[in-house]
Amino acid sequence: MTRPDAAGKLRGAVTFGTDLERPGMLWGALVPSPAAAGRLRAVDLGPARRTPGVVAAIGAEELRQLLPSALGRERPLFPVEEVAYRGQPVAAVAASTRAAARAAARAARVTIEERRPVADVEDRYPEWPGPGAASDPGVIAHVRAGHGNVASAFARATLVHSETYRTSGVCQVALEPHACVAEVSDGVWRVTSSTQTPFGVRDDTAEILGLPAETIVVDGTWVGGGFGGKGAAFLEPYALALARASGRPVELALSYREEFRLGRSTLAAVIRLDTAVIDRTIVGRRVRLLLDTGSSLPGRDFATGYSIGFLVGPYRCGAVEVEGFGVRTNKPPFGPHRAPFAPQCVFALESHLDGLARRLGVDPLEFRLAHVWREGDETFLGQKVGPFGGERALRAAAERARAWRPSVAEGHGLGAALGFWSTGTGAGGEVRLRLDGRALRLEQVEREIGSGSVIAGLTAVAARATGLPARLVRLVASDTATAPVDSGVFGSRTVAALGRAIVQANEKLLATLARRAGGGPVRLEEGADGIDVVGPAGRRPVAELLTPEERDGGGLVAEGRHYGNAPPIDPSRVEDGTFYPYTDFTASVDLAEVEVDPETGSVRVVRAAAFQDVGAVISEPLVRAQVEGGFVMGLGEALTEETLWSPDATLLNPSLLDYRIPTLLDVPPLEITLLEGAPGAGPFGAKGVGEPPILAVPAAVANAVADATGRRVRDLPLTPERVSRALIRP
Amino acid sequence: MPLTLERPDGVDAAIAALLSAPDAVPIAGGTDLLLDLEAGRVRSEHLVSLAGLPWARVERTGEGWSIGSTAPLRRVERSEGLAADHPGFVEAVRSVGSAALRHRATLGGNLGRASPASDLLPILLALDADVTLVGPAGPRRAKLDELLRGSRDLALGRGELIEGVALPPRAPSAYAWQRVRPANDISQVGVAIARPPGADRWAVALGGVLPRPCRVPAAEEALTAPTPSEEEVRRAARIASTAARFASDRRATAEYRRRLVDVLLRRALARASGGARP
Amino acid sequence: MSADPGPLEVNGRPVERASIPDDERLLDTLRWRLGLKGTKEGCRSGDCGACTVLLAGETVLSCLALTRDLPALPVTTIEGIEEDPVAIAVREAFTAEAALQCGYCTPGFVVATVGLLKELGPDVGVDRLREELAGNLCRCTGYAAIDRAIRRLARGGP
Question: What is the pTM (predicted TM-score) of this model?
């Protein structure tokens, strides 16, 4: 398959957010808080204004005159009293060059009455938080739920396996830094942005600036990688405020250092797992999570309640008790990241089960097979499990492991893990199909982030649904003022959710055409001169079935929508906090062979296999590309990637040198098996595939290290030093 | 930060330019200096470019190898015959950054920046390299070990420039390093060993230690045999791992660095001496 | 006393350097002065390779070079290798293997591959080429497709 964007991208000829330019444009820069915590005393923008080239400098004071609605109580654009993390924007400037803007931002004098920041959840809670901690001021989320008689299960157990795992924060590292350009005129606040969610940016920006959503128009660009990092408003409100203040278009782009310092991603966690077993069967589980949510706002944390389910995992158990605390620290807020925090949860759970199986003398894959969900089972929250490829993927992996085992060299180890994720999420979306005699136009808001889901996935669905050749399907992406609403390119949902909307729109289109053609069913076909409608009444060109208005006005229009259909959770199982139901139950199994250097602790993955539950394949090259990319991102989370924070909540490694994503030399040969047969709600039974391939990689690698060395590393990532420490542990 | 760049076309002009402003610093490839300037680790408004100086040679001379300070590292690593004569040195050069970085980064720049984590200083120390310098008082020659005063601190006189480096004709050598990520990373520890002609023992030098890369004479004493025994290697490794001051920082703890020195020294010796690897 | 650097040749066209500030990086000159935005700004610290261009045919990181400090040698960007036969072969290999996703690292990868193939010759082995390209980071593809494209291009190796 030739990607439709290959020619342009191989010539550097597509426009990303960082490439945007407007006549008379200024450059913006953000003034960072020099402290991680404290009371904001003064922001003196005088020196910034006196920097040559500066046109506008705004802080909370200036906003009070210019745009008081942007100082709303919950999410003010700039902090008014307290700063929440180091680098938090406390003001912004716009100047004629980027260098001038940065110089001005550096010149601003910010005075803060510093307080000792909370840098780490374990500083805040050296002992595990007790029952009363739920109402502590620093706890922004508390979740507690369960079912069955857990105490009795543990009392009856023949073996209890108890462990504590720790995981580090990770960053998305899209190579394109965040960038947007904003223009304000005639009451329209327009921003063009490298974003995964134009409508999300519109609504978020409206809330932050205190403006009606209709006055804000968001348009996308080619996105230089997202991975969740471009899944919400970030720079856009600042750029718009600067455009308003300066009366000129303003480009705002982060440096990569800022990208790390201000980025919203996964943060650290402590995970406690206790599992009660009778003979070889799990009878009781306790799952406890202490999650660093950064400076997320109370009531806006999704991570704690969503993640904890991935610590329970896709396994049957009659008695489960979960409790999680989302703890506020002085770091940027927790944010979305390719299956946010799930690879870390899967690492803990699958390491735990692997070790438990070994203690029981059971093959780890057989142990999982004995407990893994089958369709119709219930989750710990009483949700009915839909079609799930876990068993199928585990069996395929077990077979491959048996084939590999004899050739696993001395000093090497083999490990596997099962990841579970809910795909096809998001708040729903809509598309518009517009058919004229020559082509089918597919109108929607999203831009391509790299996976191909928009430029090739959606068009493939439209072609397959309508029966037309792909070259007659024209993708039209437009801004939020003209395109149908959608929640974004994230959550493994683009093809699954918008594809479903395309199928529905096509059905409407055909119903209208059938009526006009004198009865159905009808289908579309490429004819001698454009597109034909073929049905019981014969073959007719589409053009003949259009009204005069449609012929002149751009064709017959049909809209389709898909707003999810998650089975409900049982509210009686929830004791406290917010949990979220799963949509498509999706499995991903990885098998990895590692070589461990017994003296340095270095781990090299020498070969791997991925078994991906995909529901149905729509475009095999695109699906395989997601598995390849997700696997390697998972490899980084397994071995090298982590954010390092000082005791005063300063990020110590904000660079691509010290935050180590994999290079070309770190990648092993990867065998990929795509498993159909457990359909999702997407078109033709497809499930989303963007996130699941990352899930089980850290766990599979950790289990392989345990197999090679007999030692279990319970901290992620498995850096050489951590592995080395485990090897010399008495 | 207004910044001016002088482009002198000769050595005398370069020295004069360096003397003309108290904060003047020389720039060669700039791959490290520009980052330090941006981060404020180096404060200077006067850069003096060495691009116009005739110091980019990499050549065999009667005495050995002569490498000019503005020779890009890529030219060094691809010089005919150098890898055969100085395998450890070329290993170290190739471990620095990426190919594109090494097309600009220079040997003199790496020396001049004198980073404690430099991958080149340990092997140059082990080779007992001479550094040739030119300053207002004329040329001089000094041992690298004497010039290297501390972390990012080379004992150059005011207006003095690194002209080049002189290496012996050939020496068995090896450079072993450990990184979290094999490519594109800073070494947590680097261990260089070499046996220059006429030396009565293996030279051992460490990188990633405080305050600067250093030789370990006590360990060298155990390594007089051309192919040291297993026991001698173990003793040297043990001594090396306790002799230096190891940093604990975001890249590694001192304890891990100590362990690595022990491992890497054994491996470097095995490679360079063809001896057994204990 | 400062020697005039003389014009820089970018993609075959002379670029006057007299009015360019001393501290301007080649990356910014290319992108914002000359409008050659195919060269991408990633880390701006020499760690990602997105800004790779050719200087006298050799790969360099344009984020770490001062425009006025460069010798008067030809600079070639992704826009300047449209007709180059090696670049055509590289683009064909990357297209055949779909060795790109978001496309942000892609121009840097193409330029670096072209530069290294020319520097090291067509008989460079796959392993060597892979090693030399390790300074170019890609976050989307997991390098698998890039690796396959490299295998199509490098002869003489495994």
Answer: 0.97
